[in-house]
Specification:
The protein is of the alpha+beta class. The protein has 7 helices and 6 strands; from the N terminus they run E-E-H-H-H-H-E-H-H-E-E-E-H. It has helices at 17-27, 39-50, 55-65, 69-78, 98-101, 105-116, 159-172; strands spanning 2-4, 10-12, 90-95, 129-134, 146-148, 152-154. The strands form 2 sheets. It has a 4-stranded mixed β-sheet, with helices on one face. Helix 3 (55-65) packs across helix 4 and helix 6 crosses helix 7 (159-172). The radius of gyration is 18 Å and the shape is elongated. The protein starts with a strand and ends with a helix. Bound molecules: FE2/S2 (inorganic) cluster.
């Protein structure tokens, strides 16, 4: 199996026995003919261990679960929580769907990118923060909202609150 690393080189990255054992525990939770149901768990395991899910890892998971690779790609591209390339220690998903857009979601995204000196989808030079836009995060009433590391929702993100958040993340890097 090969994978593309952060610097773009291809390296052989086999799934370890320990990883396969974790896959097996997830697969065991489902009937034998439904082992594809473990796809999200397997993707989460790879991401937890490697920080992102390379295309080669998606292919390996597809083979392990007996799924077409495209069915795995559909999962990784649908959910923002799966990183398809290396990301910074902190990942900011900024909602730019309509309700957030109507309350300056795009402005918030542009403000963050300007403050950090990155393009949307990029990572700061020190590897600390990745910024990307996301689909609706399910908290439209709190717009504009963003999600930190796929877990912590931050709401009503005007420029002052964004600057405070960025200062906190940069202090913690
Ligand atoms: S549109 Fe941004 S949270 Fe729903």
């Amino acid at each position: 199996m090969s994978a593309t690393t952060q610097n773009g080189s291809d390296v052989f990255v086999p799934l370890s026995e320990a990883t396969l054992a974790r896959f097996a525990r997830e697969v065991a939770k489902y009937p034998a003919e439904q082992k594809a149901s473990a796809v999200m768990a397997c993707l989460a395991i790879v991401q937890q261990e490697r920080g992102f899910v390379a295309r080669a890892a998606e292919d390996a998971i597809a083979a392990y679960l007996g799924m077409p690779p495209i069915a795995v790609y559909e999962v990784t591209t649908f959910y923002n929580m799966y990183n398809q390339r290396p990301v910074g220690r902190f990942k900011l998903n900024v909602c730019t769907n309509l309700p957030c857009q109507l309350r300056d979601g795009q402005t918030a995204l542009e403000h963050i990118c300007r403050r950090l000196g990155v393009e949307e989808g990029g990572t700061t030079a020190d590897g600390a923060i990745t910024v990307q836009k996301s689909e609706c995060l399910g908290a439209c009433a709190d717009a504009p909202v963003m999600l930190v590391n796929d877990r912590e929702m931050v709401s009503f993100m005007n420029e002052q609150r964004i600057d405070e958040l960025l200062a906190m993340l940069q202090a913690a890097k």
